[in-house]
Amino acid sequence: MTQTDSTGTPPAPSKTSSSLWAWLGLVPFFLFAIAFLFLPSLSIFINSFQDNNGSFTFKNIIDLSEPFIINAYWNSISISVITAIGGGIFGFFLAYAVTLGGMPKFARPFLTTFSGVASNFAGVPLAFAFISTLGRTGMVTVLFRDVFGINIYQAGFNLYSFWGLSLVYLYFQFPLMVLIMTPALDGLRREWREAAENLGANSFQYWRYVAMPIILPSLLGSMILLFGNSFGAYATAYSLTGGGAINLVTIVIGAQISGDVLNNQGLGYALALGMVVIMSLSLIGYSWLQRRTERWIR
Amino acid sequence: MKRGSIWAWLWFILGLIYFFLPLYATFDFSLRLKRGVLSFAAYENVFSDERFINGFTFSLQMSFWTIVVCLLLIVPTAYWVHLRLPRVRPVVELITLMPFVIPAVVLTFGLIQVYAKAYTFFGTSLPSVLSLDLFTLPGLINLRDAVAARAPITLAFPIVLIAAYTVLSFPYMYRAVDTGLRAMDVRTLTEAAQSLGADTPKILWYVIFPNLRAALLSGAFLTIAIVVGEFTFASLLVWPALGPYIQLIGANRAYEPAALSVISFAITWATLGLLQFFTPEQQGQIAGAR
To answer: What's the half-sphere exposure (Cβ side, CA atoms, 13 Å) at B56?
Structure first.
């Protein structure tokens, strides 16, 4: 803060004015963020605490405990947890296979390219792809019926159910895991394994005491990303079930936007606010794990 | 090592099956419109449908404008943060990650709340002025019809839709630009340009943009891939885009949706597969149109 040095540094006044100018450079970005992120979020927040006449109330938040709403949150959270863990484990093994699993060299760019495409192939087209595969007249369904004589729909499978939707979500979940984990697995240095083996560790001990503790934070962090990835999903579920068979939070909010299905505007906003809270918590968890990961893997 | 690679192959093959089986089944299904023969009839139906052409053109235009807005917002901001205000970086980064925190449905809800209110507040004169004259973007298809056909609560100009798409592409666009800026010596380049007499817009246009070409290209490709098939924003804000069209056809037909899925996949593949092939270090993105 002392301006006593006379070695050609700019004097204080011009410094403050230039930092004012510097702030001006960010005005367009922040204006945009205020208009299209902050104001909409604020309006959801405010409306969550207003009744239909616009006066302050906690009723909307309390109403979130209605069985229908609890059920929607329960479905959304469990489908996200299940596909995050399932997709996370499958994606981890795939990433492991192409990094440390001794596969030929072509496997890795091949897998990451396809994962890049698959993790972005979601929404309406993905739903129809699975209808063509596992729907009532889908290819695999017909194959099972004609070749093995098994009607998978009579055996209890249903694509348009919770588990069917989970299967569809996995299609964009595990490729994302592959994309995140492949570089993380590169961070496991060969020297660590060699050092462990020199000290007499077997494969299990190496994984249990060396590799896993290093990988675990980024493994869990990636699964949190997968959780958010399916928690906010709307298009896939909507087009698979035609907008109603599975009660998810995003589906209810979508229906609330198109026409006030809850018969209570405020409750709709509280529902949306709840989603933002859950997503924020998961992002905080992610960044905490991310910081732990960076101690070892850069 | 050998045992390990058997497991590796097993997982790899399982992954390939999961990836290709639905695509193969969809393609196969899309050829079966005519009983007993395989034909491209479903594709012919799709391509001769005017709504498909319109939806596709509309979505392409949306992705074009999204890329333009995103570049104008992100590049100068990231450059400025890099050069002058490094301590603001965490804030800017956090803002660009907001689409992860605020799901598309929720953001739409808020956008409608804010802008439909402004819309009704100013009465009927506003849409006719704003949407059709001042805010009509050059080259937009049939905007007048689109406005006339919409449901009462929605927004009268695609500005909000483009803004929503811009927010959606913030995370990877910012990350791409930020990585690009880290890879070059921004300060030296800027000082060199300044000593040659360039002002900030000139520096951005002639020095920063060209150096970010690869990063911007990958960001632009991702934006096209995400915006062209996007459903949530387009459908809830009631715009005649490609995503809602596919959904509409899917509710009424059997074979055309399969054909549309294959076409959609081809678009995603064309944009992303090529991108991944040329810049393999490109990461997956976390907030897309699911």
So the answer is: 12
